[in-house]
Structures are given as structure tokens and as C-alpha cells.
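dumping this here so i dont lose it
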């Protein structure tokens, strides 16, 4: 799964990178976030229904389906990731997959080994050239009983590539820029871009040890991408 990620770019750079055309001046978001956690509101890129141009908006991480009755129905981390293997059959994912696909801007993401005893050493993964990239995402809109709308998203995951599989059997789907238009196209509802839901090339990624403190959502800052200097207080680290 993908439960934490990093965004080093501000909204202007994100809008320029993903060619979003809307006015982002009023989006309330920090210039960077080094420990993005579920239920927080984060920038996503999608296709505007009226203009078909790309737009940058904020949405809650943890998809709330349009048919949800109460937010209490959403349990834990169950909707932060959408498995590529069930994306056309799952009740939560099949409609967003048809017409509400998005891109989730990121600079890196974290993962912890699936096996072993805590404290587990977290690892950071990013593109080798250090550039901004985009996860394949799905979004939805839900209205509560008072008529207030909540827009939310999930990150699509697939089987791990050779690099990622050293730590975990799954990884988020990272899109190539050449495929952004296909993924975002709201008109393409019959020939779904399922072929894009594949592992990113391992040779184009880097992996390194991150700070143990990234496990606490209150810890944030560029130091999260570095191995903790005070790791001794956490005990012996796994190899």
C-alpha cells in the first residue's frame, strides 16, 4: 500500500509541471509537505468537465464514494488505496475509474517492510532525477445530509517492481508524463487505460533509508527524508 508521501513543490510549480490552467492563488496549501498522511487535503490534477483543461484542486486523501451515507462508514485506511486488480469490479472504484480519474502530485513516498518486528526502518522512494511525478488516482464527490460537498481521492496501487519488492509487495502506480492525457480523459469511458496500471521501471527509481520519525504524523520537514541520527533510542534497526 501507499500510506505516506512527500510533496516538495508549491502550487505554482505543480500547476506549471502538470499544465493546470485554473487559478490556484486561493488554494490553502503549504509550499511543501514531507509527511503527507491520510485524511489530509492535498492537491490533485484532473480534467475540468466544462473546458476539458487540466485543473489543480484540493481533495481529501481517503476516497468517500458518492453513495456513502455517513463518514463513519469509512473504516481506517481502507479507501486511501485502490488496487489495480479490482479497479473495474469494486463498488468503490468502478465508477471513478470510468470518469473520475486524477493525478496525485508527489516528490517521493515512504514504505515500511511488510515483515519483521517494530520499529521497522522506513524507506523513501523517488524518481532518479529527483523530479516531480504523479501517482494514478481516482476521485469522487460526496454530499452530506446538510448539502455540503466533500471531494476526495485514492491512490492506485499495483504489484511492486524489482526495487520496491525488496521492501513491500505493492507500490503506487506512477504515471509517465506521456500518459497524463489518456489517464485524465473524462470522455474515454469504454476503452479504459488499464494498461497504464503497471509497475514503474525499477532502474528509473531510487530507494534510501528515511527518518524513523516519519512514522509519527506530527513530524514534518526535509529531515524526514534522511536516516535518523538519533536512531539508537529506537533500538536495533533491521537490515
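and the seq i came up w/
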Amino acid at each position: 500500500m501507499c500510506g505516506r508521501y512527500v510533496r516538495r513543490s508549491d502550487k505554482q510549480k505543480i500547476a506549471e509541471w502538470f499544465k493546470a490552467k485554473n487559478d490556484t492563488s486561493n488554494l490553502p496549501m503549504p509550499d511543501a509537505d514531507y509527511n503527507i498522511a491520510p485524511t489530509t487535503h492535498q492537491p490533485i490534477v484532473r480534467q475540468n468537465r466544462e473546458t476539458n483543461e487540466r485543473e489543480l484542486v484540493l481533495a481529501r486523501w481517503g476516497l468517500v464514494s458518492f453513495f456513502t451515507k455517513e463518514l463513519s462508514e469509512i473504516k481506517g485506511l481502507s479507501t486511501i488505496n485502490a488496487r489495480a486488480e479490482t479497479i473495474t469490479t469494486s463498488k468503490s472504484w468502478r465508477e471513478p475509474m470510468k470518469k473520475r480519474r486524477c493525478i496525485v502530485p508527489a516528490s517521493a513516498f515512504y514504505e515500511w517492510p511488510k515483515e519483521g518486528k517494530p520499529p521497522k526502518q522506513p524507506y523513501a522512494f523517488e524518481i532518479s532525477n529527483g523530479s516531480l511525478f504523479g501517482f494514478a488516482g481516482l476521485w469522487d464527490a460526496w454530499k452530506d445530509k446538510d448539502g455540503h460537498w466533500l471531494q476526495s481521492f485514492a491512490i492506485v496501487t499495483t504489484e511492486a517492481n524489482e526495487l520496491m519488492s525488496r521492501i513491500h509487495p505493492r507500490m503506487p502506480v506512477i504515471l509517465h508524463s506521456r500518459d497524463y492525457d489518456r489517464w485524465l480523459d473524462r470522455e474515454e469511458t469504454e476503452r479504459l487505460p488499464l494498461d497504464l496500471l503497471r509497475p514503474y521501471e525499477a532502474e528509473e527509481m531510487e530507494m534510501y533509508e528515511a527518518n524513523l520519525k516519519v512514522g509519527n504524523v506530527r513530524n514534518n520537514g526535509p529531515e524526514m527524508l534522511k536516516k535518523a541520527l538519533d536512531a539508537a533510542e529506537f533500538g536495533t534497526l533491521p537490515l
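Residues 228-239 have pLDDT under 50 and may be disordered.
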